[in-house]
Amino acid sequence: MPSLLRLVLPALAAVSTAYAASCTVSATTTIQNAGDATGLASCSTFSGSIAIATGTTDDIALDGIKKLSGNLIATNNANMKRLSAANLETLDGEMRLDGLTRLYGVDFPKLKNIDSIKWNALPNLQTIGFTAEVEQAKKLDIQNTGLRSLKGINIEEVKTLFIANNGYINEFSMQLGNVSDSLTLADNNVNVKVELPNLIWATNLTFRFCGSVSVPSLKTLNGSLGLYNNGFESFSAPNLTSVGEALAIVANDKLSNITFPMLTKITDNLQIANNSQLAEIQAFPELKSIGGAFDISGNESKVETPKLESVKGAFNLQSTDNITEACDFYKSLQQKKWLQGKYFCRGKVEDPGTAGHTPKDQSGSSKKSAATSLSAVNGALGLAAMAAVLLL
Ligand SMILES: *[C@@H]1O[C@H](CO)[C@@H](O)[C@H](O)[C@H]1NC(C)=O
Ligand SMILES: *[C@@H]1O[C@H](CO)[C@@H](O)[C@H](O)[C@H]1NC(C)=O
Ligand SMILES: *[C@@H]1O[C@H](CO)[C@@H](O)[C@H](O)[C@H]1NC(C)=O
Ligand SMILES: *[C@@H]1O[C@H](CO)[C@@H](O)[C@H](O)[C@H]1NC(C)=O
Ligand SMILES: *[C@@H]1O[C@H](CO)[C@@H](O)[C@H](O)[C@H]1NC(C)=O
Ligand SMILES: *[C@@H]1O[C@H](CO)[C@@H](O)[C@H](O)[C@H]1NC(C)=O
Ligand SMILES: *[C@@H]1O[C@H](CO)[C@@H](O)[C@H](O)[C@H]1NC(C)=O
Ligand SMILES: *[C@@H]1O[C@H](CO)[C@@H](O)[C@H](O)[C@H]1NC(C)=O
């Protein structure tokens, strides 16, 4: 760390009015103690970033500032307990709090607009003191905190939202209408109840280790939907009509019922694997086309996609159960040349796997000339993308 600049108010290029000042600094202003913070109180608009020194032990109150055009940063400070700004309404920059192991209070009662929030390693922070509720933020990245909920943040649109490894968050509910890049909820409290009643479109949505997920209004996904390791028994996307990239439903141990009643098109891969309780897949009554691979493996006894008429990538269906009926149906589609990539369909296998995997028969022997790797247009690429989603 470079040596910290000590704040000297006269050095600020200040433009005073009778009531409030606009203060502009080019470098980052570093605050060492409560007195330094009080020294900024006359700046109702502060242009420049504010950093809190690592050794600060005082509570820091940035009162007086209404608008901060810059970042507010506090990192690697084991002693600081509270950070507040009684008058701050707008923060045109990032609020970065990282490695503040004792911090328990973040009180910004008037804050409504913020460019981005990046919080990490705040184990003692249980609540967000944004009393007025932040209603605009482009990016939220909150990891490894002691937060119980995100109450205080209720935004209507977002670019990226990444909430991970917050072991106590058991509720996530927002008025979000759209997500222009991605929303990821991963490895929080396994019982976390996710409710996005107004979400209409998003690019990527990833849910990992969630207790329940509700997206009743979701209509379009410009990117992918990934459901991994979740604890719910059923998942439904009642209004979803198209998926711009892939749909992946993997390793949800209790999942027994999925429904996508309006879904007609998946532009890239459909992958369903390792959902041990998912016996019947009748989730896609309207699905007509898959631009990548059709890749379903597991313990299915029934798989039905009555309207399917085009799969551009590989077709792979492997199950521990008897799927003769499904294989007969898909064989007929293949004969009509509606399934354009490599074709593999087999039931009663011991170790069902994804496209490219050659399963063992339940008798134990491996049959030859089994699945081949994805060949067609988007197939291989799509799976690579899927792996990326898997790895987060
Ligand atoms: C995103 O959602 C918000 C809130 O629902 C809405 O006001 C806005 O028009 C939406 N933007 C787009 C591009 O759909
Ligand atoms: C995603 O799709 C929605 C609805 O089709 C559209 O309004 C929006 O502009 C698209 N967003 C991006 C980032 O492409
Ligand atoms: C969406 O996810 C895909 C697959 O992981 C990735 O390639 C793409 O860049 C993501 N798009 C956005 C806007 O995050
Ligand atoms: C589902 O979509 C229809 C048609 O676009 C719309 O009228 C309805 O309100 C949507 N349902 C929900 C719960 O958003
Ligand atoms: C599956 O879920 C759908 C939608 O949530 C519901 O209507 C249906 O009754 C469920 N089916 C079973 C067998 O539980
Ligand atoms: C399914 O589980 C098997 C065995 O644990 C694993 O090898 C495979 O990679 C999993 N499939 C997916 C798509 O994650
Ligand atoms: C099939 O079900 C059994 C028993 O529930 C489970 O152990 C196994 O992992 C499941 N296999 C797949 C591929 O989901
Ligand atoms: C699988 O089910 C079909 C009927 O759908 C039946 O004719 C066939 O004998 C069954 N195969 C095995 C190995 O149980």
TrEMBL record:
Subcellular location, principal: secreted
Any one GO BP annotation for this protein: fungal-type cell wall organization
One GO cellular component term of this record is: cell surface
The record's section on Gene3D superfamilies has:
Receptor L-domain (3.80.20.20)
Residues annotated as signal peptide: 1-20
Key words, A-Z: Cell wall, Glycoprotein, Secreted, Signal
Q: Where in the cell is it found?
A: Secreted, Cell wall
The cross-references to InterPro entries, in alphabetical order and at most eight, read: CWI-Assembly_Regulator, Rcpt_L-dom_sf
| Protein name (Swiss-Prot/TrEMBL) | GPI-anchored cell wall organization protein Ecm33
**Source organism of this protein record:** Cucurbitaria berberidis CBS 394.84
